Fold this sequence. Notes:
Layout: H1 23-32, H2 34-37, E1 41-45, E2 52-56, H3 67-79, E3 83-87, H4 93-96, E4 99-103, H5 115-132, E5 136-138, E6 149-153, E7 156-162, E8 166-169, E9 172-176, E10 178-182, E11 188-192, E12 200-205, E13 208-213, E14 220-224, H6 244-256
Parallel strand pairs: 7-12
Antiparallel strand pairs: 1-2, 3-4, 5-6, 6-7, 8-9, 9-14, 10-11, 12-13
Amino acid sequence: MGKYCLQCGNEIVSKSATKFCCQSCAASYNNAHRQVVKGKTKLFVCNDCGAEVEGSIRRSQSTFICKDCAKRRKYERDKQYVRYIQPVESENHRKTQKISPQMILPSKFQVPLNSKQKGNLTELLCISAFYSLGYNVCTPFGENSRYDFIADIDGKLIRVQVKTSRLVGDGAYQFNCVSTSRYNKKKVKIQQYTKDEIDYFCTVVNDVFCLVPVDECSNVKTLRIKQPANNWQTHINWVDDYELGKMIQKIKDQEKE
Length: 257
């Protein structure tokens, strides 16, 4: 009894083949019946757009997003690293000045940045944010200091470590509160920052500069710009609560006390 291809129905001439007459038929059949043949994929619902997309069974529904939404998230993350600060002139400079990030280059001139370049650009933006508000900034010589710069807030010196935030969910941004150093390909040293080493973390979240006290951070700090989907009300760190201008005012009030 002859053997026939499951895809095209032609008789299989090869003695070694059992189901398909050629590799093209095998690929077409497996793509059309991927769930039935291998059982390694299933339908997921994208948490951003709600579209049904086929994905690996190893993926989790709680964190699944489609390729289009993943590209959009990456664009939103990278967009903040090609900006600069344009101060607003006013009579009462410190009280009313606003930070207005603008695009520094047209999109056709933008190039992807690696993690080191993103960190350097975030540090430059944070230093510019302090300086645009009228506060002097000092940077340490070399790279052995645990802080990135020192800001002079009307005589009060604060040590600031700059971290780059990333979009991790719908309205949620995170930044690492630890330092990593690699000794070789297998050994990585992770060290947490302490209050004896730095005073604040500074980061940029959705065009807002944030200043977060080190004693309020663990290994990772999450800041939100909108309410979570589960309408959770407690233990939420809002971006507006750590806005740079508000935190500087708190530092001044503490000095008066």
